[in-house]
Amino acid sequence: MFSRLLKKNKPSIPNYEEKRFFRHEDEIFYGRLRRALPNCYIFPKVELSALMEPVSMSEKQRLAELEQLKGRKVDYAIFDASLGLLCVIELSAQAESEDSQVSNSEYLKSAGIKSIRWNQNPLPSSDQILRTLAPFSSLASPKPDIAASTVIKTSYVEAPKTLDTVQVMYQSDPEPSNIMGLTVAAIERLAPNGHLKTRYPHVWQRICLFSTEPKHLKKYLASLFLQDRGVERAGFPAEVIKEITDIQGENERFLQVSMPRGTTWDTTFINR
Known about the structure:
By secondary structure, this protein is of the alpha+beta class. It has 2 domains: 23-160, no CATH class; 176-227 and 236-258, no CATH class. It has 12 helices and 4 strands; from the N terminus they run H-H-E-H-E-E-H-E-H-H-H-H-H-H-H-H. It has helices at residues 2-9, 24-36, 59-69, 104-111, 126-137, 144-156, 165-172, 184-190, 195-199, 201-210, 214-223, 238-258, and strands at 41-47, 73-79, 85-92, 115-119. A 4-stranded mixed β-sheet has the order 1-2-3-4, with helices on both faces. The chain is elongated and about 85 Å long. Residues 21-129 form the DUF2726 domain. InterPro entries: DUF2726. This is DUF2726 domain-containing protein.
């Protein structure tokens, strides 16, 4: 008897139909991203709360700060083969204004996450995407065993957080300098014999990653010669050192161009 009553009172399920995940223009842009970043994972419509978390130790404060992230999303999040976050991409309308509220970019900057912003009308061309994302396009392709072990570890084990060199660099100085830097093609011309690329691919990848931001590249190249890991480094062979120093010299040229020129006045005679 009761079961019949329960069945009668059970709310009816409305009719639904499948919805396309991407709009036509989104599908076009996603295809361009996939071609530009064949070795990366690209996740669309990612919530900020999935990419960052409050650092406050107060539970009440943490909940309040998480509430600020509620409903906020980035259009695309780009991850490397080990599911390490590389950058996020946001598409915005030209007329869009965020003056009245805190923008996503401010939260991303606070978390030290590199963000790239493009106008969605018109969408960036394939060439524009390739030029901007060139450092990421040369990263190693994902390996199923690495990706799987990463997912398992993050799902079941609360592992201590260790920041990658890339994350450390961007978190220490996330503000872009807006200085034109080296391209991957230019770096390859500076190291035509490929000693560094072949023998130290992980170093090469990071050099390519930092190439578009000269100040970060300068710090990273300098760090290669520092004994700061608690164990003595073996050091690089002479031919690799030459390639690194050649890249250093060319990168320094971009930084010097960006520096304000000193006055041509002789300050000795000022206020006399």
